[in-house]
Amino acid sequence: MESKNPNGTTGYDLQNDVRYYFSRSYMPIAATENEAIFYSPSSYDYYYLDFSNLSGGGGKTAYDYFNEGVTLYNQQKYQDAIAQFDQAISLYSGDERFYLYKGYALYYLGKYQDAITAFDNSLMLTKSEEAYYFKAKSLFELKRYTESRAIILIVISYNNQSPEYYSYLGTILINLGQYQDALDAYNNALRINPSYPEAVAGKDQVEDLINDGGSKQLPSKSNVPLDHTFTINFNTAVNKNTVNSSNVQVYEVSTGQLIPISILSGSNPNAISFKPVTNYKPSNLYRVTVKKDVKSTSGKALTQNVEMTFTTVSQGPVYGEGQKLDEMEELLDESSYILKGDQASEGLKDINFTEYENGFFIGYYDVLIEKYRTGQFLKEYQLGGGYKRFTATVVPSYYFNYKQPENPNDIGRMKIYGDGQLLYDSGIISTSMKTPKQIDINLQGVNRLKIEVKNGVSLGFFNPKLYN
Questions:
Q1: Could you tell me which residue ranges the SbsA Ig-like domain spans (predicted)?
Q2: What is the CB neighbour count within 10 angstroms for residue 233?
Q3: How far apart are CA 182 and CA 169, in angstroms?
Q4: CB 413 within 8 A of CB 394
Q5: What is the arithmetic mean of pLDDT over 232-256?
Q6: Which has the closest alpha carbon to 365: 357, 374, 356?
Q7: 286-311 burial string, b = 16+ CB within 10 Å, else e?
Q8: I need a labelling partner for 319 at 20 to 30 A (CA). Which of 121, 176, 296, 386 fits?
Q9: Mind listing the pLDDT tens digit for each residue in 137-159?
């Protein structure tokens, strides 16, 4: 098979490609030149695949249309290429490259939102470095810098030896006003390639911004509570009459909107404290600016503005009484790359083959390397004391009926905390556990809920529900 390369693809072989993509989910049993039989261990079903069914009118296959589209793409005939990719998709929607190349073409036509849709479709089939990268670029072009930053971090988690990716991260961070973080990104790029042009130019630019007397950057903070009170300490007593909402400000980075805050009086003469009038938005990036108009009690002003960015905690999923969570995006926060697991598209079945409505596996079996990959889950949810109860089921995956892990006596352990206090501990779970662990926790008065699993190995976390 040939590698995915938007600049020089020459074509793909139909039988080899389809066999490859299909065999990632199913076991090949028998095959001839034009047909193959696969077996699904999850459903005990057999699947017959006839390659001739992948053709449209005039005998053209989906891959014929795709190859013609790639040729047009390489000729920069992007609109014509998209038409061919659409034809390919209409015949066969199971190859992520069809959507990937359509996304490339849309990107170069400046249709960034449509490109994001195409890349998302590609990512639904296969998580790929290329699709994530161009999704980040598309988000950047739409000035959605916070989202772009989150996606480029995923790209770097795939490949942390690319000066291009670190340079692009630096560019995003400049637009977010995070100059010190941008400088770090450019330095990472130059560590890999000391003469990389974009990193050299970007570093010069951000150093000028830092040294231009504009602002002093304090270290960024993350997982900040939605009602958090910030305290900024100075090395001398502050004239509190110079502290007001005009020279102490908080902005939402993605929109530039000024956030109303309350300046708090405190006993420490060397400190400024403030909190939002209404809670910050969850999973959002903000920038604090303390302007140089703030003065000490001796009348000395700050030499430059002081700035700091912070990201708020994730908001927990909202349920009605007994309502299931229909979409797992709230829990599967891939932008934080904390969860490394599998959403179990083949079916949410436990070791007893009981099927569940929703949930996911923490850790998964990688059929390509024939080994289990461990997963970590650590998420905190801001509940605000508005929920009474949390229920869920924890149980080993059905896949252990086919393949045991290296250590069957330890496939993970779940702990749940409320406001820092341990509310639930599953203990170490083994593959021999046939009875699901039913979680039922009283959340009366709990503001923050934290769920933690370390070193999960295909551990099922099913039907999580909050009750108000």
A1: 221-312
A2: 10
A3: 7
A4: no
A5: 82
A6: 374
A7: bbbebbeebbbeeeeebeebbbbbbb
A8: 121
A9: 999 999 888 899 999 999 998 88
